[in-house]
Write a structure and sequence with these properties.
2 copies of one chain form a homodimer.
Chain A lengths: L2 H13 L2 H7 L4 H15 L4 E4 L2 E4 L1 H28 L6 E5 L1 H4 L2 H12 L5 E5 L2 H9 L5 E4 L9 E9 L1 E4 L6 H5 L2 E2 L7 E5 L4 H11 L6 E6 L2 H9 L4 E4 L1 H4 L8 E6 L3 E8 L7 H19 L2
The first copy, chain A, binds a DNA duplex (30 and 30 nucleotides) through helix 3.
DNA sequence: GCAGGGCCACAACCTTCAGTTATGCAAGTC
DNA sequence: GACTTGCATAACTGAAGGTTGTGGCCCTGC
């Protein structure tokens, strides 16, 4: 089965028509038509049945679908990888971080770095953890910064600093005296909370803790990022459990925060490929991030 | 990156030379040379450095290697699948089983089946479990018979019958009186044993039981299939733990056997694809296998 | 040191096939 | 019944991929 046929098959399935597929592949409709016929002839069975002038995938086609889509995806990844490899070393510092860290930590670190190395060019991305790993493996970026426990992948993981899970609340929720003390998790029972989407490892873990409370906290709203949670809390929608960086956003003015009394730290990790050792600029950058993070977490 | 280039890259890496690659792909050496240059030009970096007239993969090439080989493999699987799909329903009964079952159970069942359906054509394979799953998923065969606990794969698994793990020994190892009783596992301590290769799930499980004995049994010889173990035991090389079908090979003349006293059964499974329901012949075949197996296991 | 063989690159030429435009036909839509 | 949408066919074109022939480089063995 020629790659050409595979692409065409995929294009027809995604667009739903041969004409659409032809457009997707930037070829004319007759070219697509001919190619599809050749593919079917070579295979020995029909991929689509022509019913009332339309293409309808056959049973066999549906059996092939998953495999073909997997191959297409891997070819795309290969494409991305080779594209990035050809422009290797074009940029000394390519960093991706989660949205929570993109708020101030990473930009601040970049600013500091560019004072030390004025000429340096920098590329920044914000991505969620799964995409981040992919991006690193495909050489699109060189360093990832995340609060997630991104296991398994064959990537190096270096802890930069540790912090506490924080509870944030609308202004004037707690008294000044209370703010000093960690909040016992039981105090969250029955409270209105902003939930974090399931794909988040930390959020997931916290969620299972919360589920054991009785009455369980109400989480009518669920968001993907800690930043959204922060904003909603600031607007009085409820409490939220967030990382210590998000909690300190805006200098901690918009919301109140208290550490959660929990035997579990939030860890800021730097992740990178094991094969390519970090260069001097990258190492210095990580040093700055660590320094800034520690200083930030020291503030109340 | 064109598929053509991918194949060429792979061929060069496996054969070690451009000429070899050209032969592998059934093209002339200059064609391969030109294609490789085009590939490198399109990529923007060299895949091989020409040193002393030879091709030496560059660092980048090695980074691509794994991904490319994965794609090649998946393309091959797709090829196999489509090849099998085009000759669909050509044969009503295509069965694959492990070597232990190919000894007598499966051939006997086929003989019986062909008395019931005289005209039926049958295809038999013997494969180890991992390959068996692959073969089923690629529509090369329709039914697999195995004693392994082939989990995860999205294949149906139907237990046909249960038996006991058997200990086999050279003739006259045990007294006639002993033969009736199950052998306690502790009796194997310090005994010379024939081991089963690690990839076997059952063998693996037994191995971990044996390892806890003290003194642990000696397993100087390790074999891949139960049949080999049987032959070695018959030649007096030691004891072996085998499935109940292998134990009864040759009518149980060449070796002595005793059930092992163990809270774990050997299960004979039929596995098949969930999407394609079994036809009448296939169902009848499984019925025969079950019947034969139960009868066989009832004998001492 | 020189002949020979293995391996890669270049050149000139040829064939095939994927692409094009133009057109036809069937079926649904208003 | 006119119009639109979508697939198939026909005739043509160009580029890509193939061929053979040749030359240079390097190692090897006499």
């Amino acid at each position: 089965m020629r790659l050409r046929y595979i692409e065409l098959f995929h294009a027809v399935l995604t667009t739903g028509s041969l004409t659409g597929a032809a457009n997707l592949l930037n070829i004319s409709q007759p070219a697509a038509s001919k190619a599809l016929q050749q593919a079917e002839q070579q295979l020995g069975f029909a991929l689509f049945s022509r019913v009332r002038g339309r293409l309808l995938p056959t049973e066999q086609a549906l059996l092939l679908r998953q495999r073909i889509e997997k191959i297409i995806q891997e070819l795309n990844e290969l494409q991305r990888l080779t594209a990035n490899m050809s422009l290797t070393d074009s940029c000394p510092l390519r960093v991706t971080c989660t949205p929570a860290l993109a708020q101030s930590l990473v930009p601040d670190a970049v600013t500091l770095l560019r004072k030390i190395f004025p000429g340096t060019s920098v590329e920044l991305f914000t991505q969620h953890s799964a995409v981040m790993c992919e991006s690193l493996l495909l050489h699109e970026t060189d360093i990832g910064l995340t609060l997630q426990d991104t296991g398994r992948q064959n990537l190096c993981r270096e802890p930069l600093c540790r912090g506490q899970v924080m509870v944030i609340a609308p202004p004037d929720w707690w008294s000044v005296a209370e703010l000093k003390r960690p909040l016992p998790i039981t105090a969250l029972a029955g409270q209105p909370m902003i939930g974090i989407a399931v794909q988040d490892a930390l959020g997931n873990m916290l969620q299972s803790h919360l589920a054991q409370l009785s009455p369980a906290p109400r989480t009518p709203v669920r968001v993907q990022t800690y930043q959204l949670a922060h904003s909603l809390v600031a607007q009085g929608e409820g409490l939220a459990l967030v990382d210590p960086f998000t909690a300190r956003r805006d200098g901690g003015k918009a919301v109140q925060m208290r550490p959660l009394d929990l035997r579990m730290d939030v860890v800021l990790y730097a992740i990178y490929r094991p094969d390519s050792p970090l260069n001097a600029v990258q190492k210095r950058f990580l040093g700055l991030v660590r320094q800034l993070a520690q200083r930030l977490l020291a503030t109340v």
